[in-house]
Recover the amino acids of this structure.
């Protein structure tokens, strides 16, 4: 199985500052079609996960442009610009290259 | 609009069984697979497997083979998850989700909390 390893945030993050969350995969998620099968989700307290980013850098419909994804085949970053109260929660990366789909352990964002 | 509405919370004793449901609306049910994801209290997300809503064929992740059964009531656009011989470690919230966009889970149910306690 592909192992997804997420980094921690230096919490709490001051409101209005930027935050970057890292994720590393044990296998390259770059497929022969040129797409990288890495997704990002936000799970706000008491809610279901919400898709933020797919194919490493494509924002899902309705997601603020304050969220951006980048990376290589195995190292990925989710950047949140101008952090707001609604960004609080746990962020998960997920690989969709192969089954079983695996998630990172999650990175908690707290607001100062 | 696409919605996945799950059944209500469950409180069960060890050794009992539970069946939770996920009713889909807003799209053709048989066009998209239904996935199940487990989240233990305070823990992360774990993909359990999926069921092909057209053929009814389930696929289970290794940790969910044996006591877990995915099934369908296609006429009711509903997917079910049954867990038998419940153990304390089955205490968790169980989400259903679809990959409408094919390579990501873009629609999720609200989750069902299953508590296993004697």
């Amino acid at each position: 199985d592909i192992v997804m390893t997420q980094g921690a945030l230096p919490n709490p993050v001051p409101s209005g500052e930027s935050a970057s969350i890292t994720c590393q995969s044990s296998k390259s998620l770059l497929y022969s079609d040129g797409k990288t099968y890495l997704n990002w989700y936000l799970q706000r307290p008491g809610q279901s996960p919400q898709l933020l980013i797919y194919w490493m850098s494509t924002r899902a419909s309705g997601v603020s442009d304050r969220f951006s994804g980048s990376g290589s085949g195995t190292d990925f970053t989710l950047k949140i610009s101008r952090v707001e109260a609604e960004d609080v929660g746990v962020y998960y990366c997920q690989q969709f290259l192969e089954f079983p789909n695996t998630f990172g352990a999650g990175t908690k964002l707290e607001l100062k | 609009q696409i919605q996945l509405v799950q059944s209500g919370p469950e409180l069960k004793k060890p050794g009992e069984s539970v069946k939770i449901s996920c009713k889909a609306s807003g799209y053709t049910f048989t066009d998209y697979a239904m996935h199940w994801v487990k989240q233990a209290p305070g823990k992360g997300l774990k993909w359990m497997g999926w069921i092909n809503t057209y053929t009814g064929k389930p696929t289970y992740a290794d940790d969910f083979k044996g006591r877990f059964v995915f099934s369908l009531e296609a006429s009711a656009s509903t997917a079910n998850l049954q867990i038998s011989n419940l153990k304390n470690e089955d205490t968790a919230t169980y989400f259903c989700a679809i990959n409408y966009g094919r390579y990501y889970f873009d629609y999720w149910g609200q989750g069902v909390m299953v508590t296993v306690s004697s």
Observations:
- The beta strands of chain A are 4-6, 19-25, 38-43, 50-54, 58-59, 67-71, 75-80, 89-95, 102-103, 107-109.
- The CA atoms of residues 45 and 89 of chain A lie 6 Å apart.
- The mean pLDDT of chain A is 96.
- Chain A touches chain B through 24 residues (CB under 8 Å).
